[in-house]
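Lab channel / #folding
Pinned by the channel admin:
"Please post every new chain as: sequence first, then the structure tokens as a reply. Keep commentary short and put observations after the output so the thread stays searchable."

First post following the new format, from NK:
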Amino acid sequence: MIKKMKRTAVLAASLLFVTTGLSALTGTEIAQEAHDVETGNTTHAVVQMDLISKDGAVDSRIIEEWSMTDENDLTSTVMVFHQPASVANTRFLQVENDGRGDDKWIYLPALKRVRRIAASDGDKSFMATDMTYDDMESREVEQDSHDLMGEESFGEWDCYKVKGTAVDPDDSQYAYRITWFDKETFVPVKVEMYDKRGDLLKIMEVKDLQQVDGYWTPMDVMLSNVQTDHATQVKMMKIVYDSPLNPRLFTTNFLEKGK
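Reply from TO:
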């Protein structure tokens, strides 16, 4: 779920970095490199999403996702929940806009209607996961200041460690984020998110990163809420890049009818 590394339910990204003097990079340049990596014009993925409660109980979901990037480099993403029966046929659409927030809609089978997600709902949980609607939204580099904190390894990756703080505090649900960018691919392999009090709230960690169709793809991602001891794990079951997709997928009409 997770679209470009700019955010979605697929969490896919990257491009091999051409070395041009690594030590000269600033935090903003690193963030821009991560933002600009190629992710393919389209993706079609099937993911397993596990909701893991404090006592270790697991609620598994199967989700199919499509994304398409247009000629203006704006991405639309649609998700369809297939399992379990309690959420089957729930459908979600997110459309990136230029210069303003993403548009989001959700179709809930029990209500049999499409509901627009208001901007004021951005900090609410998406389908009982540890992701909020704002977590899934695209974010431009200039919306944050980016301070290089140094270099630090995470797992098998040698990383740049960058602190990102919203230029407008009202523009983010977090006080700041600290991101570990893999030096080779610029994929964010770890992110710490701090709440408005400055306390650690959530940690995102990539567990498995593989190259698929020439694109570096996070295949297993864990998002943990350290304040509630709840977690969401997203495992890629299948992903195909650059396959033709019907633009009608990315409409509220598809949300309502499922076809």
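NK: The longest helix spans residues 27-36.
TO: also worth noting, The CA atoms of residues 1 and 232 lie 11 Å apart.
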